[in-house]
Each structure stands twice: as structure tokens, then as C-alpha cells.
Amino acid sequence: MASVDTDRDRTSSATVGAKENRVIWLLLAAAFVAILNETTMGVAIPHLIGDLGITAVDAQWLTTAFMLTMAVVIPTTGFLLNRFSTRTMYATAMGLFSAGTFVALIAPGFPVLLVARVIQASGTAIMMPLLMTTLMTVVPPHLRGRMMGRVSIVMSLAPAIGPTMAGVILDTLNWRWIFAIVLPIALVALAVGVRWIPNIGERTHAPLDIVSVILSALGFGGLVFGLSQIGAAGHGGDSSATAGMATATLVISLAIGVVSLALFVWRQIALQRVDDALLDLRIFRSRNFSLSVAHFAVMSLAFFGTITALPLYLQGTLGLSATESGLVVLPGAIAMGLLGPVIGRIYDRRGTTILLVPGTIIVLAILWSFTMLTESTPVWLLVVTQTILSVGLAMSFTPLFTASLGSLPPKYYSYGSATVSTVQQVAGAAGIALLITVMSSVAATAAGSGATAAAAGAAGARAAFLLAAVIATPLLISAFLIRKPADSIGEGAPVGH
């Protein structure tokens, strides 16, 4: 299928035209709404338990199923974005998301609501790779930093605003309004996008390898599901049988995930020799891409773990309400979003090191400072430190997005975008699982030794953030090694050169 403009025409232009800007903003808005919705269910779970008459374990599946679907669908988007037109993929993504939102709004009970979340996740999984692939294709190299800065608004602001927005809605209305507010926005984005989105890039006609799809689903799905069971394995309540079953599920899920992922990698290496891979792993021949993705993975682990563990500390130890704890992290999220474009401009002019090194130092400093939390830490101090942490993350994410994908030739953009999004999902699940498990285990041990509930909660928080700080410390080395790619890389230089 012919494209509106070729990659070379797009990337060689000196500026981004009005039509391209309009498309990018539309994709940003659609991705923002989709990711915002992803983070709302956690706050709504207590309400759903009462309204739908379900158990806490059942309710948790509304977030687990969403994460699982994302982990299964995202690795396939590299192939899909090469195989089908941009407009088709956008219509599919927003159509699925809108349909899932509508079904959730009218869901008569838990089973239908669970199906709705899976449908929503299928659309959400396509949006971020589509956004990043489109941006890399239509934006010339010297402007990509500021455009990726806009992406960081979506990546940082939406996950933080979601729980706060849901908390306000649940305090005044009911859980169905979460979907009622999102649905008209999604439908407008769908209608406008079908009209505005052009078809960009060249299409391929590689066959879909069903074995790769199955291995990908088992591999990434098994890892994410296994990670989501870590907390249950360590806390089976009073029933040793329940704890034993959770542990067995954890081990089996992770084993299936690791083995399937190894087979998936082996098959992709074989298929990419004839350009038939579902996820072309030749992207990892680029040292800069590999370093950037590894750095991004650890940052994502720390980011998602922290924005999950910190509210638990605020509520369980300091006694704040869900809405109040959401407001504590909100200033940092807003700062992170607003700084994205500014940091992107600095990247375009000065490169990676000037941002990534101090950004990494800030993140490490705040994580280590969180290891000194007590049951009486002032809330205002947490607002300040969380905001500073967000600034450090903003200084890191934009250079990492741009440097990673900019290290690849245009034909690999879709695979690179799919990889970055997959890494974010798996690393985020790992961060949440590890930090919450450590936090809960240490708190339970301290409480068993006679500590007050507040003191035990503070001990758990210190241990969780200590783990995050230790894991993140090696990033100080990789921050010096990641470079801004030469502009010619995106114009067809071979991967690895």
C-alpha cells in the first residue's frame, strides 16, 4: 500500500508541518486517555467489592487482566504496525478502547466488566507503540527531543492523575462515572482520528507467525502474571494451603514465562533472517538502543514501584486518605509533564549526558532519602521530595525515549516502539510486585515483634525503597554511556553502526 509520504521525505524536512503536528497531538490525547483509564481501577476496587458482591481476589483481576492483556498484545504491535496502515491501526486501537469503555459502563456484573477491561487493554496496548512509531517517522531527527518530551507528559502525568481523578469521582459519584466521563472523549478521538490520521510509512506483507504469537503470549503473559502473584505467595492469610497454592502458581507462571520467552527469542532470531519475525530482535545490535532500554527498564521499575508504594505508606502509616495521598504525588506528576517539552528542547540542542547524568543522580538521591522514612515524616517534606524525584525522572525518560528509537533505522521503529512499551509493562509489574512484597513482609515481621502499626509500616517502606535504591544505583554508570544518536542513524544506517 502506498504511503502518503516516504520516510525519507518526512525525516529530511526541516520542520514538522501543521498536519503532522495535528496528528501528533491527536495521538497524544488518545494515548493520554487510554493510559489514564489504565490506572483508575485500583482505587475503585473497594467500591466494586461492595457494589458487585465480589471478593477482593476477584476485584484484583480487573487490574491483573488489564496488565496481562497489555503484556500479550504489545509485543505483536511491531508486526501489526508494519503490516497494516496507520489509519487502520488507530481506528482499531480507539475502536477497541471505546467499545471496552462502553461495555464497562453498562456492565451488569463482574464477568462482563472483566471482559470490558480486556477489550480496553487491547486498544490501549496499540496506542503507545503507534504514537512513538508515528512520531519517529514524521519528525526530523533534530526536533525529536521536544516531541518525545510531549510523550513524557502522557507517560508520567496520566498514571499519576488516574488514581486522583478516580478518587474524586468515587467520593462524589459511583464507579460507572469513571467510564462515563472517558467514553465521549474516546469516541470524539476515534471520529476525529479516522478523518485526520494519514497513512505513513511503507507496508510489509510478511505472514503472521502463529507460533511466535503463542510463545509471546505465554512468555510475557507468564512473567507479568507471575510477578502479580508475588504478593499473594507471601501473604496467604491464615491458610497455609492458600499460601502454598499461591507460591505454586507463582513458580509455575514464572517458569512458563521464562521458558516460553527463551523459545520466542530463538524463533525470532530464525525468522528475522527472512524478515518474517513477529518482533525483530536485530534492534538489539545497536549498543545505544540496548543500553537505553536497560536504563529505561530500571527507571520504570523504580517509578511504578514508588508511585504504588508511597501512597500505601501515606495511607497506612501517616493516616492520609486516598484522595490526600493522591494529592501528595500530584505536584510531581504535573512538574514531570510540564518539564517534558523543555527537557526535549535541551536534548535537541545539547544531547543526552547533560540531562541523563544529573537526572539519574537526582533519582538515586531521593530513593536513598526515602530509606530514612519514619512514622512521623512531615507530609510537606514528602511532597517536596516526590516532586524532586519527578524532575529527575523527567530528565531521564525523554532522553531515553529519543536516544533509544533514534538509534534505529526507520524500518525498525515499530519494533523498537513495541520493545520499549513491553519493557515498561514488565518492569512496571516487577517494580510494583517487588516493592509491595518487601514492604508488606517487613511490616508484618516488625508488627509481629511488637512494633506499632505505624512503626511497622514505616519499617516496610524503608525496606522497599532501600531495594529500589540498590537496584537503581548501577544506572549512574550507564548514564555516562548513552549517547545522542547521530542524525544520520534514522536515515537508514545499519543497526549496530
Q: Helix fraction?
A: over 70%
Order of helices and strands: HHHHHHHHHHHHHHHHHHH
End-to-end gap: 30 Å
Largest sheet features: none
Q: What is the radius of gyration computed over CA atoms, rounded to a whole number of angstroms? A: 22 Å
Structural class: mainly alpha
Q: Kindly state the mean pLDDT as a whole number?
A: 82
Could you explain the architecture of this structure?
The chain has 497 residues and is mainly α. The chain is 78% helix and 0% strand. It has 19 helices and no strands. The chain has helices at 7-12, 18-38, 41-52, 56-73, 77-83, 86-106, 110-138, 144-172, 176-196, 210-228, 230-234, 240-271, 287-316, 322-350, 353-369, 379-406, 413-448, 453-472, 475-481. α6 (86-106) packs antiparallel against α7 (110-138), α13 runs antiparallel to α14 (322-350) and α14 runs parallel beside α16 (379-406).
Write a compact overview of the structure shown:
The protein has helices at residues 7-12, 18-38, 41-52, 56-73, 77-83, 86-106, 110-138, 144-172, 176-196, 210-228, 230-234, 240-271, 287-316, 322-350, 353-369, 379-406, 413-448, 453-472, 475-481. By secondary structure, it is mainly alpha-helical. It starts with 6 loop residues before the first helix and ends in a 16-residue tail after the last helix.
